[in-house]
């Protein structure tokens, strides 16, 4: 079995429901684990969180301060309001979540650079010239997840074109 990543931050917080009008009033204490890979897992207790729990993909999320003790994790499918014991704890979690997103973006930038290298090799072997396939050389630093996804989509399309 693969080794579990070492947690970067973990602890209890209150997750509010958002799926229906009635669930918006529900407050559920959950144990959250943010691991070294940037994955956020939550469950009713630490044991369940460590054995899997529910996952939130931080790369495709926005982290929004909502009140001194609350932040929201906004994904494409859902918004997760999370309440902490106070502003300091909220700020610590926000900083850890944003750092995890930053690590994920760096990993994607590295992957994009590797893909650029593959395309360069292809071009040097007589394939389509890289400057015709790319718009400006090395991949730009990615400021947002949307830019990262767009860049990955463009590279995927180019690689599919090359594979034909």
The structure class reads alpha+beta
Shape, principal axes of CA atoms: elongated
Which range best describes the helical content: under 10%, 10-25%, 25-40%, 40-55%, 55-70% or over 70%? 40-55%
Question: Strand fraction band?
Answer: 25-35%
- Overall mean pLDDT: 78
Radius of gyration, rounded? 20 Å
| Count of beta strands | 7
Main sheet: strands, sense, barrel = 7 strands, antiparallel
Give the terminus-to-terminus CA distance. Answer: 37 Å
Spell the H/E element sequence.
EEEHEEEEHHH
How would you write the strand order of the largest sheet? 4-3-2-1-7-6-5
Structure explained in plain terms:
The chain is an alpha+beta fold and 164 residues long. Helices cover 40% and strands 27% of the residues. A seven-stranded antiparallel β-sheet has the order 4-3-2-1-7-6-5. A hairpin with a 2-residue loop joins strand 5 (62-67) and strand 6. The longest helix has 38 residues, at 87-124. The protein is elongated and about 60 Å long. The two termini are 37 Å apart.
What is this entry, summarized?
The chain has about 160 residues and is an alpha+beta fold.
């Amino acid at each position: 079995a693969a080794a579990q990543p070492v947690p970067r931050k973990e602890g209890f917080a209150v997750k509010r429901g958002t799926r229906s009008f009635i669930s918006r009033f529900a407050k559920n204490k959950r144990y959250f684990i943010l691991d070294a890979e940037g994955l956020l897992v939550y469950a009713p207790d630490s044991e369940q969180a460590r054995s899997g729990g529910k996952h939130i993909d931080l790369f495709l999320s926005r982290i929004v301060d909502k009140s001194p003790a609350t932040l929201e994790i906004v994904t494409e499918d859902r918004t997760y309001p999370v309440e902490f014991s106070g502003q300091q704890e909220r700020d610590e979690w926000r900083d850890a979540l944003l750092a995890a997103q930053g690590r994920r973006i760096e990993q994607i930038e590295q992957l994009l650079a590797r893909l650029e290298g593959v395309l360069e090799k292809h071009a040097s072997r007589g394939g389509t010239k890289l400057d015709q396939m790319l718009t400006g050389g090395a991949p730009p630093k990615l400021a947002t997840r949307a830019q990262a996804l767009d860049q990955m989509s463009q590279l995927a399309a180019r690689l599919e074109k090359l594979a034909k």
